[in-house]
Design a protein that fits this description.
two-stranded antiparallel ribbon; 2 strands; elongated; mainly alpha
Length: 138
Amino acid sequence: MLLGNVTFNVMLESFGLYTIAGLMIVVGLAIFEVTTPYSNWREIQKGNIAVALATGGKVVGLANIFRAVESHHDRMVDILVGGGFGFFLLLVTYWLFEFLTLSLKVNEEIERGNIAVGLLAFLLSIGVSLIVGAALVR
């Protein structure tokens, strides 16, 4: 079936990729939830903008990695492996951010609502995802 330049097969494949990326983002957020000493969703519900920024950066970062991988790979296994590895690198980066900033307790500052630290975490996630996404499609 042809709908302009978009066929039913293209829409079906797009829906499959959307579903896989969405599930991987949910899994990634669940893993991030376990690795932070506070509840992201509870803090966001309380209006903690710093946590919302840090969490939003992780969502956009994961989405960007999957966008890059999905746009350059056709096989589902390549998308899952590449996206999973990209997520792992994003997670490691966040841990390094906490570990290497000795004078700044990142998680404590974000939990306290420090918007500057939340924004930095947001931008770090986005920046790293741009690099990782580009590296995964070479």
